[in-house]
């Protein structure tokens, strides 16, 4: 694809935003074929599904499905690369993106990570090439967030050596499952594993669901979720199983198996710990969803900013020509702080992707040491929080962009409507955002090793840890670098310039630490009898603490990235974008800072004024800042965004 | 339609929310036929359009199209009733609602209000019965908000007695016009009226666009806007005119005409004043859009609250059964303050509808006294502001409801997706919300009579009025009643209970007045040279002042309504809902109150705690509060919202 040539500054910024996998991104930009990645709005459900399946097959034929799978079975590149590729594909149609995610990430990923050699040898090549399309059947009608309570059963019959997969109630029906309604031939079914000894908690079993001709297999009832608010090209559907028998070998047995005597065996004793270890291997899904949402937000910003840079409406007095709408402060206010936040989130996304590769890359699968487990929990916490913040940001940003483009923004050809409709459910799937933020809070408040014992809603209450005050949780890598910036700022809050990076970091740190400590203090008073009520009464506080923790992680990622850049115009520009992100975030929560004596009223108002100033200062650089996002030219088709 | 029987309390609350046209609402509830009002998601554009047109014709056949038209030509009921009917129809499919609005409100309304007897006699019966479908062709490619700059021309040819309607440029093409792409046979075309003397500004001309067979007439090029982000059943399209001739009699001549000598004549001398008087007669469109959006928000809340009252997820410790999700504070926080705001906006909507009837009802058309004009401008200001706040509230609320329903909320059968997609553009059409809030600020800051002279972007700057401080602008009717509540509260801010109505009102008053005064002070320093820049730099401040003015009007409407109720459980409940609205609004802006010394930090945090408490106190009454909305049972089809 021909890319229009960005300025030197834009190129430098892009390289920073591209991060560790910048070569992969560049390769994608060159190779991306719009027809293989874009949708056509308005077709029927069946047309959209057919198109998406065709595109998936084409991309698989070009080898895109191999990224991140074990090289021993034909995989290519590394695990982190699969997330980066997903991000880049997020500039295309999101139905296709989700379909790719279901096939290669969820279905393929579960076989790769929860299965063992026998599953890999038999299925991975077929999965990577798109010849075996599969589903990831976790969610049930009655249970979305509370996966531990799934009702589907997989009962071992030692007589025959079969696992009997069954849907005992209406609420146990698998639903919203991608690849179910039309294409999937096999499903990874999450079910309570039962042997003669009793139940062993949720495990995953490979269950064939359709024959070669596409008909449901005996005992499998397949439904179609039909029309949704978005993602028309994804064939979400339902599965119900009536005593469906599969060989014991279909149990994905990396973390639990049934031996030849019919005994359950697992390297992990605690059922809870086993469950969370299994789920933990699937953390990539959340990394990808956050990254994909981030791409959607960036694409919307590119469209709205390019349009806002051309569209004129209302003349200033004494002039005949109308004013370019992006010259209005209100328009800048709508778009530029969101652009700054997209920059910030990109950089944070890069860091979690790198960390994912470190912990889950080649040779890291299988059980782990205590130390690894803590690192894994820390990653899960960060990923959960970033997923929530990225997806809400995307939703909010695409909507703001739609409104900023007026009636034109509502026309399908200008892409924002579909983007908005599609990305909506990103806030729900792979973990409901509100539930995820609670996970973040729990991760911060709970000593990991104790978490294994009891993971219900308020286990954390009785275990609020001294870790909080001691700050044992490492948030980002370049700690020393940040500490240097922070040290300079300490103790002179009200005198620091608002663009002092150390002061900004210190504000994010204070907001996160103080709110978390506050939650800790409140919850520590709980007794077993009052625990639920106390936790519930503090829920808004808990969610605030979690979100501000994520904000801090994001800000630290941004500050580090700026600090690492070579001096010059690109760094100066990036520094302003970072300040805009920081100050807009502080402004949003300035009530909290005022309430807690972290800002006085004069300074609080100065923050608002400085956000305005930064918007106006960045205004002339909008085209550079959009180019730096590196969205492949051919993937933005909106007529209003063309030069 | 059978309506399930609400409790006595719910019935009383409903009566208050129903307001002056409660009989019409009750009649609608009894008569409404779901098949005539609901859509079916997922059909093709053509299917949706066909269905909507059929429904419109059916409703017209039942007489719904006659509401609000002059009785002399077969109209029924009053002008305000047409808005209330629109609100009630807003519980059905929103494509149908918009189509009804285009036909009876915009097209029919323009003929009725901008036309005179000759147009009424010839067209109204055909319009009311849906036999003549028409379009309201105002927006052009190049001009949406800035209507005064429309480029289409209507040039009088005295030789032939024709008006020649013409589209001189690409940017003059009419676009996003409902009823254009498929159904409209005639259009009210807004164009610069030109006679031999020169241009007289924007006027409306009736232009036939299709023949009986549905083919475009000579010189008329009709385009199709195609797929949009929502409203699939509305046939938005484009018109371009190539020297299209219509008789001079087609000029809608209530405010300007061409006499037999070819001279332009008008009862209003100033072109600006004439333009705004013409637009002013169309204020009903904004009343309707606000009301329709309000209904969409209420329907979404009913769905999400009913589901939240049944859905369980995660067990509390020591219990086997999972917790009902609406028992979680976070869930209450998502939905209940928005429900309270829906109550508040309903009551404010009722007041503007009554005021519209007073000013625009039977016998009020035509030119007016100075006093009438001031009342008219005041109404326009209030309507503009309420439309912006209602439509943003709807968008935000439907989204929160969607997320609160998780994956189920994303399924088309549960209605939220289509509601969300459809209501999106309500923030843009009938006036972009941001532009409308600026209008509000202008209305508040400018002496009306001076406004006629110059209405460009910053005319207000040089005219900031002493009115601000003197509070000349009357906001609601029962001023004495409110004053009594306010007087009690004065001077003891920090001691008042948070549920003291007078204190709450005073907080809304202070926020609105102080921010408006602040804007006034900033803008008064402007000179002609610096005016644009100063206005632009203050734009966020201007928008805040406008929004808080609307908030105040809304709060006053709510406070009055509660105060008027008879003592008893219904009033007690309504009182709590009012407090929740008030405190959630104060909480949202607590940074402002802190910055301006209107709250101290202790009290600010107490507001947050009290919002939580009110959510928990209202929780047991959710079903009553939903019933009180009075949404016809049969119009909520979402499976998740059924008992």
Produce the secondary structure layout.
Two copies of one chain form a homodimer.
Chain A: H1 8-18, H2 22-31, H3 34-37, H4 45-61, H5 79-89, H6 94-114, H7 117-128, E1 134-137, E2 153-157, E3 162-166, E4 174-177, E5 186-195, E6 198-208, E7 220-224, E8 237-241, E9 244-247, E10 257-258, E11 264-265, H8 271-280, H9 284-308, E12 312-315, E13 322-324, H10 329-360, H11 370-404, H12 406-410, H13 416-423, H14 433-445, H15 448-451, H16 467-470, H17 479-489, H18 501-524, H19 531-537, H20 539-564, H21 569-588, H22 590-595, H23 601-618, H24 622-627
Parallel strand pairs in A: 1-5, 2-5
Antiparallel strand pairs in A: 2-3, 3-9, 4-8, 5-6, 7-8, 10-11, 12-13
Helix pairs in contact in A: 1-21, 2-5, 4-6, 5-9, 5-10, 6-7, 6-9, 9-10, 9-11, 9-13, 10-11, 10-20, 10-21, 10-23, 11-13, 11-14, 11-20, 14-20, 17-18, 18-20, 18-21, 20-21, 21-23
Pfam family, one (chains A, B): Acyl-CoA_dh_M
Domain Acyl-CoA dehydrogenase/oxidase N-terminal (chains A, B): 50-131
Keywords (chains A, B): FAD, Fatty acid metabolism, Flavoprotein, Lipid metabolism, Oxidoreductase, Peroxisome
What does this entry look like structurally?
- The structure is a homodimer of 643-residue chains.
- With 643 residues, the first copy, chain A, is of the alpha+beta class.
- The first copy, chain A, folds into three domains: 8-128, Butyryl-Coa Dehydrogenase, subunit A, domain 1; 134-277, Butyryl-CoA Dehydrogenase, subunit A, domain 2, CATH 2.40.110.10; 284-641, Butyryl-CoA Dehydrogenase, subunit A, domain 3, CATH 1.20.140.10.
- Helices cover 53% and strands 10% of the residues of chain A.
- The first copy, chain A, has helices at residues 8-18, 22-31, 34-37, 45-61, 79-89, 94-114, 117-128, 271-280, 284-308, 329-360, 370-404, 406-410, 416-423, 433-445, 448-451, 467-470, 479-489, 501-524, 531-537, 539-564, 569-588, 590-595, 601-618, 622-627; strands at 134-137, 153-157, 162-166, 174-177, 186-195, 198-208, 220-224, 237-241, 244-247, 257-258, 264-265, 312-315, 322-324.
- In chain A, strands 1, 2, 3, 5, 6 and 9 form a six-stranded mixed beta sheet that branches.
- In chain A, strand 12 (312-315) and strand 13 form a beta hairpin.
- Chain A starts with 7 loop residues before the first helix and ends in a 16-residue tail after the last helix.
- At the A-B interface, strand 12, helix 10, helix 11, helix 12 and helix 13 of A face strand 12, helix 10, helix 11, helix 12 and helix 13 of B.
């Amino acid at each position: 694809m021909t890319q229009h040539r960005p300025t030197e500054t834009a190129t430098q910024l892009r390289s920073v935003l591209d991060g560790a996998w910048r070569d992969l991104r560049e390769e994608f930009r060159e190779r991306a074929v719009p027809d293989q990645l874009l949708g056509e709005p308005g077709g029927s459900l069946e047309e959209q599904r057919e198109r998406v399946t065709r595109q998936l097959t084409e991309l698989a034929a070009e080898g895109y499905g191999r990224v991140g799978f074990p090289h021993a079975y034909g995989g290519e590149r590394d695990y982190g690369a699969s997330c980066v590729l997903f991000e880049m594909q997020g500039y295309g149609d999101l139905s296709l993106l989700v379909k790719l995610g279901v096939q290669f990430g969820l279905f393929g990923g579960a076989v790769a990570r929860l299965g063992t050699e026998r599953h890999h040898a038999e299925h991975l090549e077929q999965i990577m090439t798109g010849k075996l399309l599969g589903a990831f059947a976790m969610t049930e009608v009655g249970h979305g967030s509370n996966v531990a309570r799934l009702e589907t059963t997989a009962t071992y019959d030692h007589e025959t050596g079969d696992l009997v997969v069954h849907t005992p109630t209406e609420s146990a029906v698998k639903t919203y499952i991608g690849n179910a309604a039309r294409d999937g031939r096999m499903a990874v079914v999450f079910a309570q594993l039962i042997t003669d000894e009793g139940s062993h908690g949720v495990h995953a079993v490979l269950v064939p669901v359709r024959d070669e001709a596409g008909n449901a297999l005996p005992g499998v009832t397949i439904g179609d979720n039909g029309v949704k608010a978005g993602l028309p090209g994804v064939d979400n559907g339902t599965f119900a199983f009536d005593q469906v028998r599969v060989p014991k070998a279909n149990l994905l047995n990396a973390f639990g198996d049934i031996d030849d005597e019919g005994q359950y065996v697992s390297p992990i004793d605690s059922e809870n710990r086993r469950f969370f270890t299994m789920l933990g291997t699937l953390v990539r899904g959340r990394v990808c969803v956050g990254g994909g949402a981030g791409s959607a937000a960036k694409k919307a910003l590119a469209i709205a900013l390019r349009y806002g840079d051309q569209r004129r409406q209302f003349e200033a007095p004494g002039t005949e020509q109308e004013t370019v709408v992006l010259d209005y402060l209100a328009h800048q206010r709508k778009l530029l702080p969101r652009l700054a936040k997209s920059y910030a989130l990109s950089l944070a996304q890069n860091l979690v992707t790198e960390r994912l590769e470190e912990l889950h890359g080649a040779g890291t699968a299988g059980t782990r040491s205590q130390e690894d487990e803590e690192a894994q929990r820390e990653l899960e916490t960060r990923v959960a929080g970033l997923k929530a913040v990225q997806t809400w940001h995307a939703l909010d940003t695409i909507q703001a962009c739609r409104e900023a483009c007026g009636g034109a923004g509502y026309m399908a050809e200008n892409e924002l409507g579909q983007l908005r409709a599609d990305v909506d459910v990103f806030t729900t799937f792979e973990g409901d955002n509100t539930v995820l933020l609670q996970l973040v809070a729990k991760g911060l408040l709970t000593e990991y090793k104790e978490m294994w014992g009891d993971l219900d809603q308020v286990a954390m209450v009785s275990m609020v840890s001294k870790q909080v005050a001691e700050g044992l949780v490492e948030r980002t890598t370049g700690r020393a670098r940040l500490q240097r910036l922070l040290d300079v700022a300490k103790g002179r809050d009200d005198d620091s310039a608002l663009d002092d990076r150390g002061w900004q970091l210190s504000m994010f740190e204070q907001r996160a630490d103080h709110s978390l400590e506050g939650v800790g203090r409140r919850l520590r008073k709980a007794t077993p009898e009052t625990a639920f009520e106390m936790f519930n009464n503090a829920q808004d506080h808990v969610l605030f603490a979690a979100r501000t923790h994520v904000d801090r992680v994001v800000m630290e990622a941004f500050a580090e990235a700026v600090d690492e850049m070579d001096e010059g115009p690109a760094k100066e520009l990036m520094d302003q974008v970072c300040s805009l992100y920081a100050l807009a975030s502080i402004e949003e929560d300035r009530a909290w800072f005022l309430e807690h004596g972290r800002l006085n009223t004069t300074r609080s108002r100065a923050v608002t004024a400085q956000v305005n100033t930064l918007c106006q200062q960045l205004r002339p650089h909008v085209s550079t800042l959009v180019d730096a996002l590196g969205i492949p030219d051919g993937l933005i088709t909106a007529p209003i965004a063309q030069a």
